[in-house]
Design brief:
28% of the residues lie in helices and 35% in strands. It has 378 residues and is α+β, with helices and mostly antiparallel strands. Helix 4 packs antiparallel against helix 5.
């Protein structure tokens, strides 16, 4: 009997221990599964279904960018003369045309070049006249053939010197009209050197003042740029490089109420910027009204030239649960709607690519999904 009592006590203790370790019914049902949602005919009229099918799309890469001059159409003008500036003819922001005077310099180099050309022209003319006379004398045995040949050589050398002196003036930016006036005896044309615009555009930088002493080949004066076309340097993340190619269309938004502006990817950098860890993609864009300014920050959207295929669904169809996991409401054959968790890929402003969780032909709630979520939570 004593042994039987001991056995009963041990059994009761074991049961009590098991009961103490077990969860309560409330704890076991802490996260019950949600029931499917059923709608009345009137409620169904307020939702829109979307049939999931594979579609082609072009990914858009978003990146920050900075505006710069089109360096293929922007010229930094350096003085070809040494001497003090006597006059400045243009102001910052002024449009100019090719050949238009920008500044005047009192230059001994220029005067020497004009003098050398004048001398070369006279020397060449005399040498050619003597060569012609010697040819006539040689034809009548008045001089030897050797003397006539030497005269021809001297004439050719003088002509070459004249061409070299002319080329020196042209390389200084001296126009033909000024050269003609200098040869006609115009003294002003022989001493006042004029710096002219090498291209048409707008004066975007001015670094010279009256009286400033210039050094030939080293003194920057102006920058003239064509502002109707600009460059945008977009900072592309290395993870997005595969979706950016030459010739891709780009949209530039300065965020100041102007634009958008449209351009094309012209160049993709060959290295990563050590500071930003990004790769620069150069975009060439038209700039109507010259509204995009150098160093302006802009937002860039590049549309990939590569077409991808995926199950694109409207952004409004995708919701998030309490754990921030994405899901959609899928229409079932019995007329109810159930949650279906999905895995998302690429997203644009209107659609998202569902990489897992849906199949072609599935019908999901595109508009009204928030209403279903509210009903399901009641």
């Amino acid at each position: 009997m004593a042994a039987k009592r001991l056995l009963n006590c041990a059994l009761m203790a074991a049961l009590a221990a098991v009961a103490g370790c077990s969860s309560s019914p409330d704890e076991n049902n802490a996260t019950p599964s949600l029931a499917n949602v059923r709608l009345t005919k009137a409620q169904l009229a307020h939702i829109r279904l979307f049939t999931v099918v594979p579609v082609g799309y072009r990914q858009k890469v978003e990146a920050p960018g900075t505006v710069d001059f089109d360096n293929d159409q922007a010229t930094s003008i350096v003085s070809p003369f040494t001497g003090p500036v006597t006059r400045i003819f243009v102001a910052l922001g002024q449009p100019v045309v090719r050949g238009q005077p920008l500044a005047e310099v009192q230059s001994a180099d220029y005067a020497a070049a004009i003098g050398a050309y004048r001398k070369a022209v006279v020397t060449a003319a005399n040498a050619q006249r003597l060569a012609a006379a010697d040819r006539d004398l040689a034809a009548h045995n008045g001089i030897s053939e050797r003397e006539a040949a030497q005269a021809q050589t001297d004439a050719a050398s003088a002509v070459s010197d004249r061409q070299a002196a002319l080329q020196t003036l042209i390389s200084m930016g001296v126009d033909r009209g000024t050269i003609s006036r200098a040869m006609a005896g115009n003294r002003a044309a022989g001493f006042a050197a004029v710096i002219r615009a090498p291209v048409s555009g707008t004066v975007v930088e001015k670094q010279v003042t009256p009286g400033q002493l210039l050094q030939a080949g080293s003194s920057p004066l102006f920058t003239v740029a064509n502002l109707s076309q600009i460059w945008v340097e977009a900072q592309i993340s290395p993870s997005d490089l595969a979706d950016v190619g030459l010739g891709d269309a780009a949209t530039i938004n300065p965020g100041n109420g102007t634009g958008p502006f449209h351009g094309t990817v012209q160049n993709i950098g060959a290295s990563v910027d050590p500071d930003t860890r990004a790769v620069v993609a150069r975009i060439v864009a038209q700039n109507p009204g010259a509204l995009l300014k150098k160093q302006m920050y802009v937002d860039v959207s590049i549309e990939s030239g590569h077409v991808s295929t995926g199950l694109m669904v409207p952004v409004s169809a995708v919701l998030r649960d309490d754990e921030n996991l994405p899901f959609v409401y899928i229409a079932l054959p019995d007329g109810s709607f159930a949650r279906r968790h999905v895995t998302l890929g690429y997203r644009d402003s209107q659609n998202e690519d569902v990489t897992m969780g849906l199949s072609s032909g599935d019908k999901i709630v595109a508009d009204g999904a928030i209403f279903l979520q509210f009903m399901q939570s009641q």
